[in-house]
Design goal:
276 residues, mainly beta, Beta-galactosidase, Chain A, domain 5, 10-stranded mixed β-sheet, 7-stranded mixed β-sheet, 48% strand, globular
């Protein structure tokens, strides 16, 4: 069957009510259905697929690992400077009605079936994974961009149901910039990105940025969370810092999209991880 890729359909209504959406999420976490993941054997190898840009003498350097489930378990840029913390990295999905959430942040996962590797080369990997209830399929293509020493993530979400659905799609990372936590970091967010960097006195400052890299017609926003753990995708802004920045505590980054996914159609978003 031929796949047709759409951007999220006019979510002018969603965009108009975006402040209300975020406000409701920050006020209370909704009751949602949590579907259990289908058994899939042992825990995935945290570095099933290693990608590298540059070498010790290059001006652009990047090394990262991708799990078989489509998480990024390690980001090192430039070499010797690691940026992901113990609470993981990954993706979450919320079906708005009836409210059902699915997530995989490496250290905690729920609602997904087994992942399948569609293709893998020395520059990219494509992974398909359906929810355990069969209602959604997420295809991720994660590739290295040598020209900018960055990681490109394309997330293509298919609604397998016979009716249109509103969905929230999120990317999460427990960013410990340059391996630092608490008093040694600062973080911020914007319409297009979320980022964190190391702020130790009298030294070079390294960090990581998660940013939207594609066109989008619906709701979108970056967030800094007040703790390191992954969000409930149905309440992606519940732990967001209200002013969009923070420092001197262990935070994490979230980028969220919301929009209508037509029945039996596919929508896609594109994000980048880039060193700072």
């Amino acid at each position: 069957m031929k796949r047709i890729v759409y951007s999220f359909l006019p979510v002018l209504i969603i965009a108009a009510f975006a402040p209300l959406l975020v406000g409701q999420q920050m006020a209370a976490s909704p009751t949602v259905t949590i579907t259990q993941a289908a058994p899939s054997g042992a825990a995935p190898d945290l570095c099933s697929h290693l990608f590298k840009v540059g070498n010790s003498s290059s001006s652009l350097q990047l090394q990262y690992c991708v799990t078989a489930n489509g998480n990024i378990s390690s980001i090192e840029t430039p070499f010797g400077h690691f940026h992901l913390g113990a609470q993981g990295e990954g993706y979450g999905l919320c079906q708005e009605s009836p409210a059902t959430e699915y997530h995989d942040y490496i250290v905690i996962a729920s609602g997904w079936g087994a992942a399948q590797i569609v293709s893998a080369t020395n520059s990219a990997i494509k992974i398909s994974r359906s929810t355990a209830d069969g209602n959604w399929t997420l295809v991720q293509t994660i590739s290295k961009v040598a020209a900018t020493a960055s990681i490109k993530i394309v997330m293509a979400l298919t609604n397998n149901q016979s009716v249109d659905k509103v969905a929230y799609l999120v990317r999460f990372a427990d960013v410990d910039p340059d391996g630092k936590q608490s008093t040694d970091i600062a973080s911020g967010s914007s319409f297009q990105s979320a980022f964190a960097w190391q702020v130790m006195f009298d030294t070079l400052h390294y960090g990581l940025r998660l940013e939207n890299a594609g066109k989008w017609s619906g709701y979108q926003q970056g967030f800094v969370q007040s703790g390191p753990g992954g969000p409930n995708p149905c309440a992606f802004a519940f732990n967001a810092l209200p002013y969009g920045y923070g420092g001197a505590f262990d935070s994490s980054l979230v980028y969220a999209y919301a929009g209508v996914v037509p029945a039996h159609k596919t929508v896609s978003v594109t994000l980048n991880y880039h060193g700072m």
